Amino acid sequence: MNKEKVIFAFFIVLALTLNFGFFIGDLTDPAHHNVFEFFAALVVSLICTVIKFGDRTHLGALMLATSLVVDLQLIVAAGIWGYAEHISGTGMDPSTMSSIISLSGGALLANIISVVLLVVETALLRR
Amino acid sequence: MNNVIYLFLRRLKTPLITMIVVYSISILGFVLVPGQDDQGNVYHMDFFHAVYFVSFMGSTIGFGEIPYAFTAAQRMWTLFCIYATVISWLYGIGTALALLQEPIFGRMLRRRSFTSTVKKMNEPFYLICGYGVTGRVVVRQLVKRDVRVVVLDIEPDRIDELEMDDLSISVPALCADASLPDLLDAAGLQHEKCIGVMALTNDDHVNLSIAIASKLLSPDRMVISRTESDITTSNLHSFGTDLVVDPFRTYAQYLSLAAHEPYMHLVYDWIHNPFHRPLSSVYQRTKGRWIICGHGRFGRALYRAFDEGEVDLTVVDVDAVSIEDIPHQVTGVGTEASTLLEAGVMDAVGIVAGTPNDADNLSIIMTARELNPKILTVVRQNIHENSLVFKNSRADFVMEQGRIIANRVLAHLKSPLVPIFIEEMQNRYDDVWAHTLINRMSSVVGQNELDCWAFVVGEEETPALIEASQQGIELKLSLFFKDPHDRKRNLHAFPLMLRRGELVDMLPGELDIIQPGDEILVCGLNKANKRMQWTVNNYNVLHYILTGNDANNNLLSRFLLKYF
């Protein structure tokens, strides 16, 4: 067992699970989507990105790319959230909530690809 | 070449993760710790304000407590966060700075910029491996002729030296092991503008691997290599190295020429050496007994070269076994008078101090001169730093490896016709012929450096001549030697050799007719070379030289000439 591999896989899978947990629920209902879970998903995704730095293989490059997509999607979602709550003056409305959730849905897809790549890499290693 | 970026990212992994963790804990803390608003109600900071506050706190800008004055609990958390974020910043910046200072990082950056400079070269260039005494002389001479070069050397000191030498054009240089093919590749081994590779390092194996790599990747390109052993020499020749220079053998031949045919030796010397010997330095008393001290690589090469001529040889060496089968031999270093007397220094014409020890060599010639003031002295210089002493040793010949190789390489670069000329001269003519030639050379260049250059009559090198010959004008060799400023004057140069297919004409007459495809070797002052380039490249100049008229060879003037 390789400790480094465990940490690596742990963060990648955690990023997916947190993202999924936040995404699941009614698209427009803020009560179904916890802000802390969103925060955790974003932080874990950032950590994932840094972990993937410096791998020169083709697979490594793909994994870094998926992580960057996740970061981008979640940061935009966070920006929209902040704008809706504090700047727009109208507070959170269903349409804003739905756009935040759909962005996190995109991030979820990228996270799934990342996990698939992780599995592929492991499978290749076994052979 | 993203090595640098990858290295940077890899090293900064831990500091970056630390920073993300510290920031997220701080932000989370501010969201969780209860605060109090201006009306005294309990409130929880939202993520937006928490991120805002931690951002300016972490960078120690500090805009104050917002949106409301903090409670004691919030202040305590702030206190913790300030130290945590500052430390994580220091850690990150410290790691980045340490990385920048690491030698490997500098090396990577240098190699990266070197590779991109070489890649951008758009003029023909030579790749020179080894910037020792030889490399330095070759680079300097090439740069003087405005030829681009790229240098590789394994010693950082030598690369520093190169940067200190003020060369008139920039020379990309890298400190690297030239025996590694990927480094050679970075230095332009596969570059289409690389016209020649020179392996001038002091390690035969490295030279060999450079030559092999170059011949494998591009078989037609010129490769010049130096060598120090006969095995390497034959190995290098076996795969078609264009020029292999063995300093010992080259110098031995040079010396034996001096002993046998002094004027031919002078011709050779003038063509090869930028600082040529004066005419008066011809040695008349060269036939007789020669003493060779040291029977190492140089001594053996010398013995072989001298043996062909009618000279008596006495070999002096410490190692009695190595000189067993030589007829006249004396055991000893040669630094003490008794050994030299035994070797017959009193009636010898010349002595060669050829041991691998500089102090011994100097001592040998000084002792020999004391015993026999008229003796000809040849001394081998092993270490370049001893130049000052050797220059003042008043020896007749100083044999310094580096310079010999450099002169030989440069002669080859001037034109591949030079070695052919020397060979033909030795095969076909005698010393009297050489004497007249050297007098002619002397009257043309005087005390200045004798330069050699060659033309191949053809579209590429002499477009004006081709145009003229297409118009049916008969071209004589003499037109090369007329001054484009005033055709009544001659340039300080004369033809050495004309090669037409198999036919080699030595010292061709000025009235010979030239044909496309002829190769002409010319010697003279470097200034004459530049003038000559005018004549052969510019049709108007050629026209002036042929007819004496300053023709305006444009459409309008041709039209006017025709009708008025």
From TrEMBL, chain A:
TM ranges: 7-24, 36-54, 61-84, 96-120
Keyword annotations of the record: Membrane, Transmembrane, Transmembrane helix
Keyword Transmembrane helix assigned: yes
Keyword Iron-sulfur in record: no
Domain of life: Bacteria
InterPro entries, sorted: DUF6394 (IPR045655)
Pfam family, one: DUF6394
Name recorded for this polypeptide: DUF6394 family protein
Species this protein is from: Neptuniibacter pectenicola
UniProtKB/TrEMBL annotation, chain B:
Keyword Cytoplasm: no
Keywords: Membrane, Transmembrane, Transmembrane helix
Pfam family, one: TrkA_N
InterPro entries named among the record's database cross-references: NAD(P)-bd_dom_sf, RCK_N, Trk_Ktr_HKT_K-transport
Top-level taxon of the source organism: Bacteria
Domain RCK N-terminal, chain residue ranges per copy: 123-245, 287-399
Transmembrane intervals: 16-35, 47-70, 76-100
UniProt keyword annotation of Transmembrane helix present: yes
Protein name (record): NAD-binding protein
Classification lineage: Bacteria, Pseudomonadati, Pseudomonadota, Gammaproteobacteria, Oceanospirillales
